[in-house]
Amino acid sequence: EGMIRSRVVYQRNFDGSPIVAPLVVSNGGASLEYRVFNRDSSTNGSWLSFDTESGGESRAGVNLSAGWYDIIVRNKATQAQVQRIEKVGVGDVFVVAGQSNSENFGTTNPGQVVDERVSAYILNADDWFLGEDPQTNRGAWSQTGASPWSYFGNYYSQCTNAPVHILSVGWGSS
């Protein structure tokens, strides 16, 4: 659905304008508000009301510029935190393909450290993770070695100072 989740990375607008990310939270009948914590500058935004609150859900379009964020949701009346969505990125998204090495047939590097700004979406888990190897998108067919994507993600995020998302759709022995 494209809703904000932990470790998600949205493609940034190259003109520098903010993107609008959909935030949907179950509210249990309570009135909620949210704010954005900018991880890059360690600053909190103002508390904002959701655009709509009905049917047990609160919905808002969250304006985010390029960077790395946490979204904090709280009960408006009690000010108790309801949810914290950590590591929401706006940066660059790559859908990559290839043959064996793109599908984790490469030699592993046990000492490799992956930059926190590198995320990978794992199709068979339907979730976002730190972009370290192996990035297994083919279930039982996936290998347990390394791919070039975590190295690329590290280099790219360090050069651009932006979050990066990699979705590998490679297929070994093709």
Taking Cα atoms only, what radius of gyration do you get, to the nearest Å? 18 Å
Please report the total strand number as a whole number. Answer: 12
Extract low-pLDDT stretches: none
Question: Based on CA inertia axes, which overall geometry fits?
Answer: elongated
What percentage of the residues does DSSP assign to strands (E)?
Answer: 35-45%
Largest sheet: 9 strands, mixed
End-to-end distance, in Å? 31 Å
Order of helices and strands: EEEEEEEEEEEHE
As a percent range, the share of helical residues equals under 10%
Average residue-wise pLDDT: 86
Structural class by secondary-structure content: mainly beta
Q: Helix segment count?
A: 1
Structure description:
By secondary structure, the protein is mainly beta. 7% of the residues lie in helices and 41% in strands. The strands form two sheets. Strands 1, 3, 4, 5, 8, 9, 10, 11 and 12 form a nine-stranded mixed β-sheet that branches. Strands 2-7-6 form a three-stranded antiparallel β-sheet, with no helix packed on it. β6 and β7 form a beta hairpin.
Name the descriptors.
174 residues, three-stranded antiparallel β-sheet, 12 strands, elongated, nine-stranded mixed β-sheet, mainly beta
Quick overview of this protein structure:
The protein has 174 residues and is mostly beta strands.
Give the arrangement of secondary structure elements.
Layout: E1 9-11, E2 19-26, E3 32-38, E4 43-44, E5 48-49, E6 52-54, E7 57-64, E8 67-75, E9 81-96, E10 118-122, E11 127-130, H1 149-160, E12 164-168
Parallel strand pairs: 1-9, 9-12, 10-12
Antiparallel strand pairs: 2-7, 3-4, 3-5, 3-8, 6-7, 8-9, 10-11
